[in-house]
Amino acid sequence: MDTRTRVAVSAAALTLGLLSGCGDDAAGPAAGPPAPQATGEPWYDETTPASPGGTTGGTGSPCPVPVTFPLADGWTAKAIEPPEGELAELVGEALTKRGGTTVRCEVDGRSAGGGFLRIWAADSPTATPRAALEGFAAGAGETVAGQQFRDLRAGGFDATEMTWLATNPLVEEEEQSRNWALAVQSAGQTLVFAVNEGLITERTDVLPAYRLAVRGLAKGE
User: Fold this and answer.
1) What is the pTM (predicted TM-score) of this model?
2) Cβ proximity of 113 and 132 under 8 Å
């Protein structure tokens, strides 16, 4: 991929939230969070989960995955619609595919002052949570460093969580951004829940909604 195309892909990724469907307003309780395990860098377990404002997931929801999870108040689940027209011809699957996973939905928190929580599904049904996370982290074309993993309980699931630093070669300052992702297996699928700091979002914008979602994971219908 040449530099012009990579810049276009990067710019198009910023519009991902606009290529979405309707939100899910069904309310539901969140599971109680476990005690913090590691305060400060890189996990920030002391971060308080956001207040719940609904649930999503399961058949017929804007997030059609075999789990349900609570939504932070003011955040909205949206189905991801593939780009069309010239944009689709230019970027192909760049907006919906990443490192052996396909995006299923995103939870948009911009109206509440947050960023995005995106849920991806591994393309291979035999992918382990750790393998799915490793492929996902490496699949954005960024320089990845400082990977750390841990196994933990996420709601009703055994899970693997990963954090890493990523450097985007298209950004002149080459600043590192902190990323977090958690993977679980349900109904023959490996799902990845991912958030990251960015140019306009900090960990305090994305981690509360992420913590709420992964700590309240339950089996969907």
Assistant:
1) 0.83
2) no
